[in-house]
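Weekly structure sync, notes
Attendees: PL (lead), two postdocs, one rotation student
Agenda item 3: pending single-chain targets
PL asked that the sequence for the first pending target be pasted directly into the notes so everyone works from the same version. It is reproduced below exactly as submitted, 209 residues in total.
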Amino acid sequence: VKPNSLLKPAIFENQNVLQQLRCGGVMEAIRISCAGYPTRRTFLEFIDRFGILAPDVLTGSSDEITAVRRLLEKVDLQGYQVGKTKVFLRSGQMAELDARRNEVLGRSANLIQRKVRSFLAKKSFIALRRSAVQIQTVCRGELARRVYQGLRREAASLKIQTRYRMHNARKAYTELSASALTIQSSLRGMAARKEIHFRRQTRAAIIIQ
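Predicted structure, written out during the meeting:
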């Protein structure tokens, strides 16, 4: 504040100083303070703190004072005063606005928690389903391997049985062939002996005659 228009010491121009105080909002601030407005906040501070109570009214506001007036109308606060650079609130109004702000923050926190829980539940379900698919794949693979191994064992068993039967058949055939040869040899021997005996008898008969 300049004490005089001449900028000289020891000169005090009352009207000039008063005009400067009025233009600077000092007189208005003093009047409002005396009227019972203990709480005061700059427009920017007020918007930053309580803008969440009515974020829609802040969109498209051309300046801070317009945004503040719209915000105060939206929250339906009574008895406040709007100065040139600050908002003046009566006793208890700051606490009321803070209570509303805490309520909005509480609802927002609950919504965020629900979203997070939903996201985590969905993520857990997806992971669980993926694990289930992997387990099913492993189980199917293990089952297929067991079936294949069972078939291989069965095939091996059948092969062994077939070879065993073939071995027994060959053994039986060999034994039968040997028996047949023995019988044939015996029959040939008997026939030869009979032939020799017959010839001897015939020769003896001829000699006797």
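Discussion points:
- The mean pLDDT is 84.
- DSSP finds six helices and three strands in the chain.
Action: rotation student to compare against the earlier draft before next sync.
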